[in-house]
């Protein structure tokens, strides 16, 4: 294992006696010849807890391609046809892409109708809560190369409207991340802050860090924040109120995510509008319909007992949030959406945007493959509505991203080849898709302005670039399914809230 980390201790840090716990000794243990390597049990459990207890629900395998026999049976004939009847394959591929895209457009229309129904109840805001009744709230913050974001994170954590003595703030960093460690050490933190340094191990992913921190958590409730997050001060109380109203089967409350730098670049504006539609319309509609919700990677709040019952996160899935949302639904739990948002940093460049989006798409593929290992079992667990919804959200999103660019080319080929029915239908479907999504951007809650109209008008230029991310995701899924494409944070000096 390399360096062996020592026992836990506590070391005061900060001007008000905040503690950074679990600072482990940097001295290596003496060599033990002819003996197996020592290992940290908590680190092993963080990596393999779910994979050991429920292997069919984990993406932990050598290639990430362990799929059910029926799916493999579909892939074989498709490859054979591509060799002997390429023209037929092109037609079938075009029709398949058309059907996938049509299903996504119809799904989006349905959710928008649900979200804008006059009787649609927006999530209620939190009420005043007696502090003496509030439980301990664990906040897990995984960080890797996040030194520029540390100071802002500490300030945001200090502003949370929750009794300081009932906050259990756990900072999680990787071994060797010296810059982030140094930034944490020189920053003033709220009391009851702990800093855990993960022992070396694989995979080096955010869910592995979360699983490690989960074993040290002492709260009744838990939430996840990223290093660049700036949550609304009342978010914890809003989640607590949602759990109090929602009953025992309500296991997760997702806060909306918004960009504080949405005015910086065209890409950041579109990213922010995507999030505004997702968290302002689509997720509330799914919650109202009691369908599975693919959670965001941050600002989701959980009942601690449920998290532990589900063995935490899948350390081998690069969209651990979506995977956990599916597993919650399969165990009969619900998720909801609360009002107070979290502001975070939108990607401002194409390179950063593509890396992040490709990881999301790769993780959706992983989650779908895991779900479809036993499709009939999954169907029994979540029922037909939930099963079909997941097929659209997981299996449909990735092919649709691949289709966006080629669809334009395909329309041109269809017209040139004389397939006017296909070409005309595809053109109208594409225009309908743009119209529906542009309309969603215009009606979603939030500040109004010319940038919203500009984003809606330029949407046809935004969608095709998803094809580059989808190709990268497909390649990564085949070659490095568990590699975590890190999104750099702390690069934005201006905040546009």
Low-confidence stretches: 1-38
CATH domain fold name: Spore Coat Polysaccharide Biosynthesis Protein SpsA, Chain A
Work out the helicity level. 40-55%
Shape: globular
Biggest beta sheet summary = 7 strands, mixed
Strand content: 5-15%
Mean pLDDT: 83
In DSSP terms (H or I, runs of 4 or more residues), the helix count works out at 17
Q: What is the structural class? A: alpha/beta
Q: Report Rg.
A: 23 Å
The strands making up the biggest β-sheet line up spatially as 5-4-3-6-10-8-11
CATH superfamily: Spore Coat Polysaccharide Biosynthesis Protein SpsA, Chain A
Count the beta strands.
Answer: 12
Keywords, separated by commas or semicolons:
alpha/beta; 497 residues; 3-stranded mixed sheet; 7-stranded mixed sheet; Spore Coat Polysaccharide Biosynthesis Protein SpsA, Chain A
Give a brief description:
With 497 residues, the chain is an alpha/beta fold. The protein has a single domain, classed as Alpha-Beta Complex (Spore Coat Polysaccharide Biosynthesis Protein SpsA, Chain A), CATH 3.90.550.10. It is built from 17 helices and 12 strands.
